Amino acid sequence: MKKMLIVETKLHLREWPFLLFTIGLPVGLLVVLGLSIPAMTVREGTGERAVDTQMPSLMTLLALLTLACSVVPAVLAAYREQGVLRRMSTTPVHPSRLLAVQLLINLAVGALSTTVLIVVGSLVFGAAAPRNWAGFILVFLLGTAALLAMGLVIAALAPSAKAAPGIGSVVMFPLMFLGGMWLPRELMPDALGVVSDFSVAGPFAQALKDTWAGQPPELMHLAVVAGGLMLFGGLAVRFFRWE
Fold first, then answer.
1. Are 140 and 111 in contact (CB under 8 A)?
2. Which has the closest alpha carbon to 230: 142, 164, 156, 106?
3. Whole-angstrom Cα distance, residue 224 to residue 23?
4. What is a single Pfam family found in this protein's UniProt entry (predicted)?
């Protein structure tokens, strides 16, 4: 497991443009939107600013969705086409171990991206770090694992390396919408709100926002995200292909 983690980390570092994009896009959007839209930097009636809770939680979701729906499928599908996975299949490595290593590496990248978001938000806007750190870490780990497991399913089903990012985009943009990226969840019609509540992205984004504001995550949100992790994790192992 340790050797596989080292090898996979080296292979991932070769794909540095993907990693740079995963970190740079959310941070850039946070800064641009925060500086260009007055509502993002003027305190609202609740005393909270959008750049304090709403924007960083959504940018965190964007970073993780980019990893899950673009980076993970593209990398694994490329491994399959290049014969990397076929060579691994001749060893005693079980697919679940390879997928677990992928989760760990991309979890680390997601944590790095989120850390940069927190630091930049603090330096540029004076935004506070998550106030409920214990809840935030729990939500972050659970939600990131669920989204990455979804990405592993996309990678398993994608017919080629070229098709993988396209399939990921088809999944990613609806999840961004359901997470509240363009329309805040509290403004969604009732029917759409129900869909958002069970989309994994919606409960994850809301739980991040709650913990950022210092509140505990709702048990229902945690249950939905945990259910997504079990579902997509099982599907990833079930449909995994070496070649």
1. yes
2. 142
3. 26
4. ABC2_membrane
CA 198 to chain centre: 16
Lookup: tokens for 9 = 């980390």
Angle separating helix axes 190-197 and 201-212, nearest 10 degrees:
90
The DSSP call for residue 83 is T
Residue 48's alpha-carbon distances to 43, 53, 114, 182, 213, in angstroms, are 6, 8, 20, 19, 8
State the pLDDT at residue 63.
92
pLDDT at 200: 92
Tens of pLDDT, residue by residue over 161-172, are 888 888 999 999
Residue 191 buriedness (CB in 10 A; 0-12 / 13-18 / 19+): exposed
Stretch among 37-46, 77-86, 102-111 having the lowest mean pLDDT = 37-46
Give pLDDT, residue 46.
Answer: 57
Sign of the alpha-carbon dihedral angle for 206, 55, 174, 111: negative
Q: What are phi and psi of 212, to 5 degrees?
A: -65, -35
Query: Does the structure show a pLDDT above 90 at 230?
Result: yes
Please measure the distance between the N-terminal and C-terminal CA atoms of the chain and give it in whole angstroms: 21
Q: For the chain, how big is the Rg over CA atoms in Å?
A: 18
How many beta carbons lie within 10 A of that of residue 163, not counting itself?
Answer: 15
Task: Determine the Cα angle at 158 with ends 153 and 159, to 5°.
Answer: 150
Average pLDDT of the chain to the nearest whole number: 84
Pair of tokens at residue 129: 């770090």
What pLDDT score was predicted for residue 12? 66
Is residue 104 a contact partner of residue 241, using CB atoms and an 8 Å limit? no
